[in-house]
Design brief:
Layout: E1 4-5, E2 10-20, H1 29-37, E3 43-57, E4 60-74, E5 80-85, E6 88-94, H2 100-118, E7 122-137, E8 165-172, E9 177-186, E10 193-204, H3 215-233, H4 236-242, E11 244-245
Antiparallel strand pairs: 1-11, 2-6, 2-7, 3-4, 4-5, 5-6, 7-10, 8-9, 9-10
Length: about 250
């Protein structure tokens, strides 16, 4: 992201659209979408998504977990998929992530198929999200050696700490958009290592702030900001670990 790496840390990238319904949801829409993309995404699968909502109730803050059904259409290698649900489209790519120039056509293919099948009234939300998993060698690691964005622990606090999570939300484009940035510890897959997840979630804040004709202009802007923030989060030591490719 931003620069080119031989071993990029991306484990999943996805672009999600939520739409204003034009008509009551038609259960035939997923089948119509599949008919348009089946040559590239031949595998069909029923999936579920979990969404957490938080609201104030009589007893205080209440949390609800909602389950929604989605149809998933997967490429033969199962590394890329298109998900369709009521007023929702998501285009995912798992590791190994290709270039941005290869990912964008998949987003375009899925969006064009959905718009043709569902004819939504407008777009409520767009999100472009990159999830990175990074393993650092050693049982004890100085995060400052690898990250410009990390937990701050004051001098009067113990400097040895275990699992952590830190996050901020940054406004962009005159607060039309925002990027939710999070760094959290994770379970390592190799012995004598520390693992962290660096999650960058860029999304449209203002519902209806982008028309269907402006979608890919928005997506390019979103990707540029994600790249900038990712590079601002890491140090040259991590770039060396990722195998930065320098232009000659």
């Amino acid at each position: 992201m931003g620069k080119k790496y031989r071993n990029p840390p991306i484990v999943e990238a996805f672009c999600e659209f939520r739409f204003e319904p034009g008509e009551p949801w038609d259960m035939a829409v997923p089948g119509l979408v599949y008919g348009k993309i089946r040559d590239s995404f031949p595998i069909r699968r029923q999936g579920k998504a979990f969404e957490v909502s938080v609201a104030a109730g009589p007893g205080g803050v209440e949390q609800q977990v909602l389950t929604t059904d989605r149809m998933q259409f997967l490429r033969e290698d199962e590394k890329a998929l298109i998900q369709v649900g009521p007023n929702l489209l998501a285009v995912n790519h798992l590791k190994p992530y290709p270039t941005w120039q290869e990912f964008v056509p998949l987003i375009r293919q899925g969006l064009e198929a959905y718009l043709s099948a569902a004819n939504p009234r407008g777009i409520q939300r767009i999100g472009l999200r990159y999830i990175n998993r990074i393993e650092l060698p050693g049982e004890r690691v100085e995060l400052a050696d690898y990250f410009e964005f990390r937990p701050f622990v004051g001098e009067r606090l113990p400097q040895d700490y275990g699992p952590f999570i830190v996050g901020i939300q940054i406004p962009f484009e005159g607060s039309r958009d925002a990027l939710r940035l999070q760094l959290a510890s994770a379970a390592p897959e190799t012995p004598d290592a520390i693992a962290v997840m660096l999650d960058l979630d860029y999304f449209l804040v203002r519902a209806g702030g982008v028309s269907q004709d402006e979608v890919f202009e928005w997506i390019e802007i979103a990707h540029a900001h994600v790249e900038e923030v990712f590079e601002a989060c890491i140090t040259d030591r991590l770039r060396k670990m990722f195998g930065e490719v320098t232009e000659k």
